[in-house]
Amino acid sequence: MLCLLTVFGPATAQPAYPSRPVEIVVGFPAGSAPDMVARTIGNKLKDELGQPVVVKNLPGASGNLAAAAVAKSSPDGHTLLLAGNASLVVNQHLFDNMGYDPVRDLAPVSRVVVTPNLLVVPPELPAKTLAEFVSLARSRPEGLTYAHVGIGTSQHLAGVFLENLAGVSLTPVPYKGGPAIYPDLLSGRVSACFCNIGTALPLVRDSKLRALAVTSLKRSPSAPEIPTLAEAGFAEADTSAWFGLMLPGGTPTAIVDRLHRALQEAMVAEMRKSFEELGMIVALDGSPAEFAKTIETESNYWQRVLKAKGIKAQ
Hints:
Blueprint: H1 2-8, E1 22-26, H2 33-49, E2 53-57, H3 64-71, E3 79-84, H4 85-90, E4 106-115, E5 117-121, H5 130-139, E6 144-148, H6 154-166, E7 170-174, H7 178-187, E8 192-196, H8 197-205, E9 210-214, E10 241-248, H9 253-266, H10 269-277, E11 281-282, H11 288-309
Parallel strand pairs: 1-2, 1-3, 6-7, 6-8
Antiparallel strand pairs: 3-10, 4-10, 4-11, 5-8, 5-9
């Protein structure tokens, strides 16, 4: 036995995880809804993991740049992706080359929150209801404009659905992130936005914007006075956004499970309340395998919808 130990040496112990600060990469700029989600959970995960958790913003290509960067990073659990349904289920059916395969190159940990969007307009726009907004769009040959944060995002798809269902012309105006939209929206340079409820609702409460509808199938508990698109007959799908945590593909199962447990333990009443105050709904999807199934199911759904409507990235 002594001879064997001398020849082969003692077994090398695996380093404890995490062994250094953990980074959460977000595909949208600081101040955006996914950035807010990442920073909220990061503040709690650092206590559960015993290491600092930092947020890195890498905006661009509807979240694809961030997803591709994480997909190519080391699968050691120290680089996470806070991704939405755009980069995980929708974009693969819109873009010919995203730089990553969301199924092969990323490993699901857990969905975190679901967040509906609000159709908001400047108070000066002569439309106080969704019906008046549609009538106004029909009366203008050039239609109305609406802001969004990227092709394939829930903000973009909500506009496409309303345009098709209502038979109106809505010109999409892309922005690099949610915070960049508001100066133009507040000044009336853009007519409308299906903006995330977490960033739009405070401006509605301050009477700086007018909310016409919410994109979820049911009214939001945070704003029950705002009707849904479906109530006005202008919805056939829930175009709300959701965000979840992912790791690079090939990350050891033990690390995936460790992060999943840490997230579950971090989601205490205080953090749940923080999300609810932003109009977001906590949606932890059970196991990583169940989150993977959610991604698969929604991907198949949106593939059918986008193909039927002929929607592709410009």
